[in-house]
Design brief:
The protein starts with 7 loop residues before the first strand and ends with a helix. It has two domains: about 160 residues, Rossmann fold, CATH 3.40.50.1970; about 190 residues, Dehydroquinate synthase-like - alpha domain (Dehydroquinate synthase-like, alpha domain, Up-down Bundle). It is about 50% helix and about 15% strand. The protein has a six-stranded parallel beta sheet with strand order 1-8-5-4-2-3, sandwiched between helices. Strands 6-7 form a two-stranded antiparallel ribbon. A two-stranded antiparallel ribbon has the order 9-10. Helix 5 runs parallel beside helix 8 and helix 6 packs across helix 8. It has about 375 residues and is an alpha/beta fold. Strand 9 and strand 10 form a beta hairpin. The structure holds nicotinamide-adenine-dinucleotide and zinc ion.
Length: about 375
């Protein structure tokens, strides 16, 4: 049976062995490639040429490089192109890009001809360590992000960290937030590795980058495998920092703050909350904040998108998080670095506001 961990390949250059990997997974060499404009421009020719050399028949689809490409209207257009070029159920789809392309490609694959296989070729750090793994695929509705979609596991996730060399630094830090998150929620040893090699990773030193990427991908896959449909609360721990983050993103109109930046701030809030509620010892709080303090934000972003926000408004914005149950805010907390749990009861509003306040003080003092 297909499981989330069984099909993740981390290799450079992965595309050179794609025919072999496809064959081992029982996939046909008839592939629709989905790019965004950037991944098409930077990597498209190289990937397509390599696939042709390996005997693939290909079709090519390109969408604008923005979040609004994850829409029903853009999926609808792409279905049309696929039908017109005789793509049938014997084909599969290869999504080459960040989370936008991965989610849209997965959505199209899950629905086209009642479902064709999808292969993910993630090219952002976020996609390599998070969005390409776990089979959640979705498009946005005008009333909310990621509301329309499927669970559609990829047949293969082909991770090649060399693609990150062209990624802007802001996107590296954004993805790194999720990487650090895995250390916080499930692996103390990985946290120590990230602490020790943070600068090696942000400098994209191959050895450390590859290790960070592959350990993250396998942690996510392992969590997903143990709790695929989010029943036991384990998969929910992947939302560490995200209750705060979703409120912040909403207030930034999903435009002025990258998801990973919101998660970085959100994790600081969640660490403070874990400490305030008596779960996380002071020394671990300090250690956790030490790593968060090393993240870089573009000038003015922290000030404008966090420090200057009204506490009350942020609190209300967090309430619109779709993960709330019966209008209760659910928080993922730590009782130590390397272990998270889903807090069952309602947390007093004063404690949430207090944690936001603590985090503001922390970021004000961080150079
Ligand atoms: N399905 C899931 O489980 C899941 C999880 C987390 C996030 N997501 C989704 O992921 C999306 C965000 O993904 P993202 O952060 O990867 O953003 P993205 O896909 O928008 O990519 C960010 C930018 O980087 C560019 N880019 C991609 N690869 C590049 C490369 N190698 N070199 C240079 N530029 C490159 C893209 O063109 C884009 O401009 C959101 O829509 C979010 O909802 C999904
Ligand atoms: Zn996230």
């Amino acid at each position: 049976m297909q499981t989330p961990t069984s099909h993740i390949i981390v290799r450079t250059p992965v595309v050179e062995s794609i025919a072999e990997l496809y064959a081992a997974s029982g996939l046909s060499r008839k592939t629709v490639l989905l790019f965004d404009e950037n991944t098409r421009k930077i990597y498209g020719d190289g990937i397509i040429e390599s696939m042709h050399r390996q005997g693939f028949l290909t079709r090519e689809l390109v969408v604008p490089a923005r979040e609004t490409s994850k829409s029903l209207s853009s999926a609808w257009k792409l279905y049309g192109k696929m039908i017109e070029t005789d793509v049938d159920r014997s084909w599969n789809l290869l999504a080459v890009g960040g989370g936008v392309v991965g989610d849209l490609g997965g959505f199209i694959a899950a629905s086209y001809y009642r479902g064709i296989p999808v292969v993910q070729l993630p090219t952002t750090l976020l996609a390599m360590t998070d969005s390409s793994i776990g089979g959640k695929v979705a498009i946005n509705h005008p009333l909310g992000k990621n509301l329309i979609g499927f669970f559609h596991l990829p047949e293969l996730v082909l991770i090649d960290p060399a693609y990150l060399k062209s990624l802007p630094s802001r996107e590296i830090y954004g993805g790194l937030a999720e990487v650090v998150k895995y250390g916080f929620i499930s692996d103390r040893n990985f946290f120590d590795f990230l602490k020790g090699h943070f600068d090696d990773i942000t400098a994209l030193r191959e050895e450390y980058l590859t290790e960070a990427v592959s350990r993250s991908a396998f942690i996510k896959a392992d969590v997903v495998e143990k709790d695929f449909r989010e029943i036991t609360g384990l998969r929910a721990t992947l939302n560490f920092g995200h209750t705060f983050a979703h409120g912040l993103e909403k207030m930034a109109e999903y435009r002025h703050l990258r998801h990973g930046e919101a998660v970085t701030i959100g994790m600081a809030c969640a660490l403070f909350l874990s400490h305030r509620l008596g779960y996380l010892p002071e020394a671990e709080l300090t250690e956790g904040l030490g790593l968060i303090g090393r993240f870089k934000f573009p000038k003015g972003v922290i000030e404008k998108r966090f420090l200057s926000l009204d506490q009350q408004e942020l609190f209300e914005s967090m309430y619109s998080d779709k993960k709330k149950i019966d209008r209760q805010l659910r928080f993922v907390l730590l009782d130590r670095i390397g272990h998270a749990f889903l807090h069952g009861e309602n947390v007093a509003k004063a404690e949430v506001l207090g944690a936001i306040d603590d985090a503001k003080r922390f970021f004000r003092q961080t150079p």
